Fold Saposin B-type domain-containing protein.
Amino acid sequence: MSRNIYILTLFGFFAINVFTVQARSIPENSIKSILNDPLNDDHRKVLHAITGYRHRFEQSANFKALRWALGDEQTAGLCDLCDIGTPLIRLLLELNDTTLIDEAVNLFCREYILLDENVCLGAAHEYIGAVFQVLELAPLNNRQICSLAFECQPQTDFPIFSWNVTFPDKPKPTPQPPQPPSPSSPKLNILHLSDIHVDFSYKPGSQADCSQPLCCRGGQPVPGHTGAGFWGDYRNCDIPFWTAQALVKYASQAEEFDFIYYTGDLPAHNVWNQSRADQLYSINTINSMLATVFPNKTFYSAVGNHEAAPCNLYPTPNIRTDNISWLYEALADNWIRLGLPADTRDSILNGAFYTALVRPGLRLISLNMNYCTSDNFWLIINSTDPLGQLQWLIGWLQYAEDHEEKVHIIAHQPPSSCLAAYSWNFYKIVNRYENTIAGQFFGHAHAEELKVFYDEVDTQRPVSM
Ligand SMILES: *[C@@H]1O[C@H](CO)[C@@H](O)[C@H](O)[C@H]1NC(C)=O
Ligand SMILES: *[C@@H]1O[C@H](CO)[C@@H](O)[C@H](O)[C@H]1NC(C)=O
Ligand SMILES: *[C@@H]1O[C@H](CO)[C@@H](O)[C@H](O)[C@H]1NC(C)=O
Ligand SMILES: *[C@@H]1O[C@H](CO)[C@@H](O)[C@H](O)[C@H]1NC(C)=O
Ligand SMILES: *[C@@H]1O[C@H](CO)[C@@H](O)[C@H](O)[C@H]1NC(C)=O
Ligand SMILES: *[C@@H]1O[C@H](CO)[C@@H](O)[C@H](O)[C@H]1NC(C)=O
Ligand SMILES: [Zn+2]
Ligand SMILES: [Zn+2]
């Protein structure tokens, strides 16, 4: 048996394994064909069945629909991949044969996915270590993992994901809907910057509609297509540095701001090929530019999902094999240089969340929502209030209530991007402290939109946004 056929057999073996173990979670069509013709003599058939998954990817408008590239998008293809891939990887782990693993990855990238092979290999190379670890350490079965990672089944089906924050033993004050201030009240102007995503490899004139998730970085435009524009391009591209610089310079001259909310995602979307050094270069370079353009302005910063390398993976302290301190140290230096009080450092080093008093009576709380999203695979090992961040938030909201402060919350991902239990707990907190939370400001969506929170009992009554 050639090596390739052996791996194909493995894939087929999984598919059947998947079917018997997790019948409910398996999409019908592809599995049916395997069932009708189980692995006996004709390995080609198995190959065809599995390449059925490939068509799911072809359906997606763009490879950007891949979750790790975009963050928010759901695709059926990912669930298929998870259902097939999870038992596959668990089996490879059990076999513990690194050459076999390499070959499986290579074969997979070559045969099974309509994705630029280099992108696939690059992503596999970046993520496979973490994925293996997570599958080894997670106390979950395959269905639970796919539910948590890609919401393939409702998370509420699994009691293991349910947890509750605890509130101080103080009754909720009577709700006081906000009143518009008198026109003569003093005002603060706030600039909100988010998701700058600068591509330092941007090349004007290069191919803007390439087969990778991020383009405008090289290659000749196809005949009949125009090349990447000088200032940017609405096809699959991030912006060049000079555009980011010109934009914020213009903003700084056009209006007077008192301070800035700055909610993360500085690096570009070439997530299949990013190193820690790349991310640090982006963070340091963009922040130095901002410090020059806005001298003496305080930036209240929050961390995005793209600052880590690999993107989205923010290990919690219970993970022994990875450590995010390299990033949090850089963020603490950068954020304090951009105006945060020096006493936020310890909190930033701990988890890249902190609180600071903006003005007497106005407190800012910056959250690290990478500890809430399913994109952060480390949470599959333990998703219960990572680093106790929500409990910490309650502590500060109670402090603010006791001291008659109002609070602005900033963060990168909105709570609608969180794992279900996290999102519900967040909702409960916003309900309890509706008089104290005066506003919430998020990034990540790449769209201007409002999200409204409603009372948990009187679901017609808005309480926050
Ligand atoms: C896998 O094999 C390596 C040696 O190649 C060994 O050191 C390691 O302990 C093995 N891991 C498991 C889980 O068996
Ligand atoms: C990753 O980027 C480096 C340059 O930073 C380049 O040499 C390499 O070819 C890239 N790899 C892939 C898979 O794109
Ligand atoms: C969390 O609280 C809800 C009610 O608010 C309750 O139904 C659920 O059982 C609680 N879960 C745990 C794990 O305590
Ligand atoms: C920045 O603040 C320092 C000290 O507070 C002051 O001397 C300097 O003129 C300020 N620079 C600008 C550009 O406002
Ligand atoms: C990560 O590294 C920092 C500094 O190097 C260290 O203080 C911390 O204990 C490490 N965390 C883990 C979980 O190993
Ligand atoms: C998960 O993390 C929470 C909070 O960090 C901790 O209280 C809990 O014991 C952990 N659960 C497990 C199973 O390790
Ligand atoms: Zn973004
Ligand atoms: Zn983001």
In short: The pocket of 2-acetamido-2-deoxy-beta-D-glucopyranose (ligand 1) is lined by residues 96 (CB under 6 Å).
